[in-house]
Fold this sequence. Notes:
By secondary structure, this protein is an alpha/beta fold. Helix content is 30%, strand content 22%. A 7-stranded mixed β-sheet has the order 6-2-1-7-8-10-9. Strands 11-13-16-15-17-18-21 form a 7-stranded mixed β-sheet, with helices on one face. Strands 12-14-19-20-22 form a 5-stranded mixed β-sheet, with no helix packed on it. Helix 6 links the parallel strand 1 and strand 2. Helix 2 runs antiparallel to helix 4 and helix 5 packs across helix 6. The C terminus is likely disordered.
Amino acid sequence: TLCSIEIPLRKTEFDLFRDLVFKETGIVLKESKQVMLASRLHKRLRHYEFRSYREYYDYLMTQDRDGSEKLRMINCVTTNKTEFFREEHHFDYLRDTLFPALERRAKEDGNRRLRIWSAACSTGEEPYTLAMVTRDYFGRLPGWDVRILASDIDTDVLDFAQKGVYDEVRASSVGDERLRRCFNRIKGDSEDLYEVRSEYRDLIAFRRINFMDTTWPINTEFDIVFCRNVMIYFDDETQDRLCTRFAEYLKPDGHLFIGHSESILRLDTLYRPLGHTIYQANPDRPRRRTAAGAGPAQTGTGSIASGPARATTQRSGKNAGPNTGSVPPAGSRPRNAAAPARTPARKVEEDTRPRKSIIVGEVMASAEPTSLSTLVGSCIAVCLFDPITRVGGMNHFMLPGDTSDGRVCASYGMHAMDLLINEMMKAGASRFRLVAKVFGGGKVVKSLESGARIGNRNAEFALQYLETESIPVLAQHIGGLQGRHVRFTTDTGNVAIRCVAHSFENEKPSSSVPVHVAGEVSVAPVDQITLF
């Protein structure tokens, strides 16, 4: 049978795959890897009953129209060796040096937001280690908003990592005390397994990111980036290009951690070495002028003059709950414990709620029953709601990000979203329970839309931001040629919208600017109200 036939990988075939792997992943396969590559790809040949590696290569290049087989090929080629607390001195530095410095700075400027990127997370041991160390430190401090992005090019290992389940040999490397505190013991088919507890898993968002892609689906800057023991597979040019891009995604004094056999000392204009393969970004390095990450949603359209953001959190003193933040105290309920009691809906007649209107560049959150409203055209209004504490809030922003100056202004989506989440947390919401509804992004400003498609870009930014931050979007009403009057009740999470008639003179609706509605909600005619 074909399974028993040893198919040779010829030098010419190896060269074809080597070039393809480099193009797709940046990984350099040396001549000595020819046998390894043949053994890893052999099962794909068996799957298709191909009789040569060239036949498989031709299939990838001509018949793999959706790229799914190329993805499987990449999964076969990548190496995924990792373990919990690998190169432990990195985590000691976080605990003993960097985290205390961030805590001290937060006391001065009030910034309690921490973003970490595990940029080659493999089967998950690294991001879960980061979650343990981070939660052990910041879980005792109120109000910290901590998120970890874990990415890899290999979809198989991402699926494994997201489950957070390990055998005893792999899990026990954390030590007996952490094993008891950070894992739940569960029954497997043939042996006991260990599942990372939900309070650590909830800190992490897993995403597939290919370092070779021209844009990355990231809309934030990071305090810390871990990219360890992966650059050894890249040539110097690819390493330099990758670390230069990391510098663009790091905050001015952010930190980059690399593997023990890697070095970027040659990039001395971007980073300064701190020892033990830890580097700090040079605050004076050339940086992007965007307020946030890469991608089309972040491209600016020029200078927009705006006043300062106004954030209003309405809380009465006696009803104000604790500032819960995003990192619950250590030792909180395990995954299978009962959920906290849901706060009963306040019995408030709709017309007795205080009514507040917000305009572009404003953000408002409330722990008391309030009716918030705004009018959006190409702008976006995002409504956030915590169904347990019944805290709700809304923002209204004009553009995804500012490329013209460094002012922090909530007219821009990145700042408006960050500010709204912070105001929600101050009002008693939990970062991990937030749900969202998104409205606006219409094609209503001809002078802007003809060149920049502002509405589409605003909507794309909002949805991408919420996906990156793992905030579910329960409803959306975006696009089209109409404006929208949006009314949001903060204690129920309900939204009513009324479309405002608008069309361009001599311009027909475009199928490329559709109206998107989540679920089975129908679109109401102009001047009627749709409930979300």
